[in-house]
Design a protein that fits this description.
The structure is a homodimer. Chain A is an all-alpha fold. In chain A, about 75% of the residues lie in helices and about 0% in strands. Chain A is elongated. Chains A and B meet through helix 6, helix 7, helix 8, helix 9 and helix 10 of A and helix 6, helix 7, helix 8, helix 9 and helix 10 of B. Chains A, B: This is TetR/AcrR family transcriptional regulator.
């Protein structure tokens, strides 16, 4: 997919009635969301400003109001956008994997890779707990549902144990979030492939002693 | 241990030079920290007030300044106090467990039990990421080190696989934090014993297909 196609891809999040109708509009909306990620990530919600976002995006202040009603609205859109970006980044790797455990490995590797390029995602999702609790809850609830579905599909294919469910999905999600924090945000001291490999081996075999 | 002994137990967190010297002082400090947990948990850091804390604690405003220099100081003390409370709540259950997996199960069960009684712990630790990043980092870094140590001790006893390390510790911590969020804070729809049992079985066997 060429750059033009990528930048003209669907982009959501504009306030009601303010959805862009042209490729150029979608590019501007994308630029505003990308700039908002940096602005909120660096300054936090309270100190972030709409003018800071438009300055970073290189667009006029009026362009902001073409797409969003308020700072709250762009923050809410950003949480959903980051959630969707993670989903879209990991999905192809998961689909291409030969089995359920390999899918979790590939997904985690892509996730840590994404986090290293977008460290601000943690501050943004975490601050949503306070600024926009509904978005915070929606992010983790939908992520957990997605993991539950793919674990159940893998179980149906016989790749993993038959009794997987919500507890396993939340365990996997928690593992991924914390490995992303430690090895993606805090310190890139180990290759993300190695972390994903070790985590996948843990998912496959658990902590029980291994036969010599 | 009687109530008197418990309330006279060591309590830390007072600002430098303001440590209580009497049992009565320690009880007042404990009351202020417990009230601060409710105040910060309900209102968030910015809207919380020192007078709100002393009102909830039933102590005079001057008593606050006997032990703390500022709202920042009591928040910082509270993060460390909640971290210590979790540690002290789960430690006896972990010590009493017959093996390494049973220890993780007992620890998670106690943790979810603690969370159900202190739902505010999530908001407080999570808000520390913004209000007091050093405390936030210290909380997870020391928790991960504690888990790494106990996994390695269990491995040395032959209870669990020999190659456990930091990745496993962060995986276990992430699992526990997210299961606590889902089944402790969000919804108590399932007994915490059942969650801990399912998580322990996952730790023991992983996700690989089980022999029929």
């Amino acid at each position: 997919m060429g750059e033009g196609a990528a930048s003209e891809a669907k982009v959501e999040g504009a306030s009601a009635g303010k959805e862009p109708r042209t490729a150029r509009g979608r590019r501007t909306l994308r630029a505003i969301l990308d700039a908002a990620a940096i602005e909120f990530g660096e300054s936090g919600f309270h100190d972030a400003s709409i003018s800071g976002i438009t300055r970073r995006a290189g667009v006029a202040l009026g362009s902001f109001y073409t797409y969003f009603d308020s700072k709250d609205a762009v923050f809410r859109a950003l949480v959903r956008d980051m959630s969707a970006q993670v989903r879209d980044r990991v999905a192809p790797a998961i689909r291409a994997a030969p089995d359920g455990i390999a899918a979790e490995r590939a997904g985690l590797q892509e996730f840590i890779g994404f986090v290293r390029q977008h460290k601000e995602i943690y501050r943004i999702i975490d601050e949503a707990e306070f600024v926009d609790p509904d978005s915070f809850r929606l992010h983790y609830a939908t992520t957990a549902e997605r993991i539950t579905s793919r674990l159940r599909a893998a179980a149906a294919r016989g790749d993993i144990r038959a009794d997987v469910g919500e507890v396993h999905a939340w365990a996997v999600m928690g593992m991924n979030v914390f490995l992303g924090l430690r090895y993606g945000v805090w310190n890139e001291d180990r290759p993300h492939e190695a972390i994903a490999e070790e985590a996948a081996d843990f998912l496959r075999h658990g902590l029980a002693p291994r036969p010599g």
